[in-house]
Amino acid sequence: RTKRAVLAVGAFLCDRHLCLAAAMDSAALMGIEKLQQEIAAGTALEPKPSEPSGGEGDDYLGFKKPAPPLMEKEKEHPGAKSRAPPLMMPETNELCIQRAEERHTEANGVFKDGDFKKSMMLYEEVLKMTEGTVFHGTDDDGAELVAKAIALRTKALLNLALCGLKLEKPDAERVIELCEEVLTRDPKNVNALFRSGKAHAELEKYYDADELLTRAVHADPQNATVRQELLAMRKRFRSDRKKANETFNGMFGRGQGFASEDRDNAEKATMSNDDKYECIVPPEKNTRAAADSPLAEADGHLQGGRLEAAIIAYEAALQQTAAKGDWSEHFAVYVKLARVYMDLDCEKQAMRALGMILDGSKWHPEAAAAHAAPTLLVRRSALLLKAACLLNEYVNDMFSEVGNSILAWTATYDAPCTDTAAMDVQLADWRKESSAGDARPAVVDVAVAHGLFLLASKRRDDACAAFAEAVAAPTSDKACFSDLAAPWNMLGAMLFANHQSGHALVAYQWSLNLKPHNPRCMVNRCYALAGLDRHADAAWSFAEALLISPVWAANPQWKGLQGAASKAGLESLQEAAERNSLDGVKELYNSNASSIALKADVPDAIPETLKLFGFGS
Hints:
Layout: H1 2-13, H2 16-22, H3 26-41, H4 72-76, H5 93-112, H6 116-136, H7 142-166, H8 172-185, H9 190-202, H10 206-219, H11 224-247, H12 294-303, H13 307-324, H14 327-343, H15 347-358, H16 360-363, H17 365-369, H18 376-393, H19 398-410, H20 420-431, H21 443-456, H22 460-472, H23 485-497, H24 501-514, H25 519-531, H26 535-548, H27 555-568, H28 571-578, H29 582-591, H30 606-613
Helix pairs in contact: 1-2, 1-3, 5-6, 5-7, 6-7, 7-8, 7-9, 8-9, 9-10, 10-11, 12-13, 13-14, 14-15, 14-18, 15-18, 18-19, 18-21, 19-21, 20-21, 21-22, 22-23, 23-24, 23-25, 24-25, 25-26, 26-27, 26-29, 27-28, 28-29
C-alpha cells in the first residue's frame, strides 16, 4: 500500500523520478501515464462507479479520490479552473538523496562535455536536495544516510567551485563561499584549499591566496599541481606589486613616525609643490560617486574603523561637490581626507590633499573662475595640518618649512607675525588668551602650533609642555584640533621620546578613547609597550592596527609585528606576520581576544592626568 501511495503522489506531481524510485515495472508506468492523462483532461478527481475502491489485489492507481468541496469563490465562478489538491505526503530524506545522486551523475556528464553553466545549475540542485539531510536531518535518517549526504554535498560543492573557476569570467566570490563550507567540516581538504586559493588570487588577495595554497601544499606535499600553482601565484603577485609600486611611487611614503629623532638620517622626501592629489580609486571606477550621500557614508565608515572605505567615499564626495559647484564643501572634504591619511601615517598623501586646498586656484580652475575659495576655517586647518606633516616630510630644512607654514597660519588672524623669531613670542602671548574667533585662534590650536614650532626648533621639553596645555584647553568648534585626539597623541609621542613609556601609554589611551580607530596612535602605543618590555602586548597592538589599515599602508606594521611577536615568543603570530597573512592574524587575534588587555588605566580627569605627568600644581 505504501508503494502504491508513493506512486499516486508521484503521478499527481507528474514526477517520473519519484515513480521510478517506487516501482520499475512497465505495468506500473502504464498506470502512471494513464493517470497523468486523466489529470490533464480534468477527470482524474471524478470517481468511476465501474472501478473498485482499492480492494485487495486491485490496481491502486485506478482509485480516484472524490473532489474536495468547492470554496465559496469557486462556487461564484463555475468557469474557474479546478485546483489540484495540495500535496499531503512529503518526500523522505532517503529518497531525496537518491535523486541527488542521479542529478550529480548527470551533472558530471554535462561537465565532461564542457557545458560548465549547465553543470553548475545541476550541482546547485544537488546542494538543495542534500540540504535537508545535512543541516536538518532527524534521528530517523540514521548516521549512515547523513554521512552519505555530506559526502555527496562535498563533491557537489567542490565540483561547483571548479566550474566557477572555469567560467570565462570566474565567479571567485562564489567559489570562496563554496570552499568555506567544505573547509568548515574538513580544514585540510586539499581541493577546497587549492580552489579557494585560486579564487583569492583571482581577486588579487595574494596574501590570503598564499596562505591557502601553502596549507594545500602542507596537506598534500606530493601534489605537483598545487605546488606549481603556488609558485605561479607568487610570481604573479611580485609582478603586480612591482607595477603598483611604479604606479604609486612615493604616494604613500612616510617618515620615521611623529617627529622622530632619526628623521635627519631617513630618506628625504621628494615631494614638490607640483604634486597633485590622485584618488586611490580612479573617478570613473568609483561606484560610490552615484550614492545619495557619500560624505555621510564616509563619516560612518570612519567611525566604524573602515578607513579605506572612508577614503573611497570621501573621494566620491569630491566628485559630487565639484559637479555641483559646491566648492566650500569640496575643499572641506580634502581636510577630512588629509586627517585620515595622517592617522594612517601617510603624510605625503595627506600633504597632497592639503595642497589641493592651499593651491586651490592652480588645481581647480573652475573654482577660480567662479571666484570660489576655501572657507577661513578650512584654510587655517590646512595650514596647521601641513605644519604637522612637515615634521616628517620636510624637503630641505625642517625648521624653516614648519615655521613658514605656521607663519602663514598666523597671517590669517589680525595680528600676524613678520618672521619666525617674532612668532615664538606671539604664540606664547596667544596661549595666555582664552578667546577664539576670526581675530584670535582657539587656545588648543595655538598650543599645538607653538608645540610644533618648538619641536622644529629642537626644544623638546618646551614642546611637551605646549602639547600638555593643548589637551587641557577648552574646546571650540572653530578649532582645527577640537576633538583633542591628535594633541593627546602628540603629547604621548613627546613623553615616549623623553623615556616615559608608562606616561606615554596613558596619553595614548586618552587619544584612543576619543578616536578608537587610529592606527597611528595604536602603533605609537606598540613602541611604548615595548619600552616597558611588554612585547606580547606590543604585538597585539600592531595586530589591532593592521586589522583596520588598508593593505597599501600596512608594510611598516607588518615589520613591527614580526619583531614584537619574535621577542614575545608568539610563534604562530610571527609566522602569520612573515607571510603577511591578514586572515591568519585576525584568526589569532580573535582566538586570544579574551586574554588581550591593551587598555591603560587613566585618571578620571585631565588635570589629574597632567599632574601625574608632572605638569601643573
